[in-house]
Amino acid sequence: MAKTDLLPPDADGIARACAYLRDGGLVAMPTETVYGLAADARNDRAVARIFEAKGRPRFNPLIVHVTGIKAAQQWVEWSEAADRLAGAFWPGPLTLVLPLKPDTGLSPLVTAGLETLAVRAPAHPLARALLEAFDGPLAAPSANPSGRISPTTPTHVMAGLGGRIEAVLDGGACGVGVESTIVGLFERPTLLRPGGLPLEALEAALGAPLAMHEAGDGISAPGQLQSHYAPGATVRLNAHEKRAGEKLLGFGPVAGADLNLSPGGDLTEAAANLFAMLHAIDDGVSPIAVSPVPDHGLGRAINDRLRRAAAPRG
Ligand code: TXA
Ligand code: MG
Question: What domain count does the chain have?
Fold first, then answer.
């Protein structure tokens, strides 16, 4: 494929995106968290192309995007806990992992052979419009080459996947900036990935604490690979100063920062800036030092992504 179309955020753009998807094509769509690389979740060829375009290992399952609770119930065994969480936070940055129903017609590549399925109803108006128009389930991982920084702008998507996918639906910059929070509801409610919905809000809605997923647990989020979100350069965390040759990604009122996630120390602003600033500060050579970020609210997701960015490369 030679060229990736940049589609306008209007009825014409939605119609063209929808036509590509019906043809088994790949379309990057804006969501409130990050851009997702969407394909028809019932079409084996289309889903296989997601893995090829991203260079994603086949054992790493995909999230299926739906319009809401009713649509999700077609694909998964619903539960009271699911009702409580989706009722409070859908559409929004929350993914639920639930038992997969039998004979759904979804491509088995979506679940990578697991007996559970991740479902999410995104809140972004363009993602919602596309799901309504397509009128079916869209499998969509983040629209970046596997292992690299997630995209929060059409420019990021084009830089990573341009020429390998049919189109990008232009929704500008994503508001939340980190991926959805993933909760497993197939046994006791478990936080599988911190994300754009703070743990504190989830536990309040559930009326109980969530169990924490530990690496090495039998059932896991297979995509939680150690090295992920990797910039070209190395990353040093909890930096209280900038060393020779480094670039400093600041948080709060720190001196000498090359870029600052939030000079005022606001975690929502920092999450929205995280991936764009990692993209921007990365020259592929200069080591990146990052100021400490508090580990509560959205800080939990920010620190999770930063730890993976800093992890030894596999
Ligand atoms: O905000 C988001 O969640 C974005 C937007 C596009 O919706 N999507 C996203 O997808 O972050 P992806 O593929 O980059 O991350 C999905 C994570 C992976 O770590 C994957 O392993 C995990 O969800 N996952 C998917 N299905 C699962 C399942 N059945 N059980 C456990 N983990 C699952
Ligand atoms: Mg991803």
Answer: 2
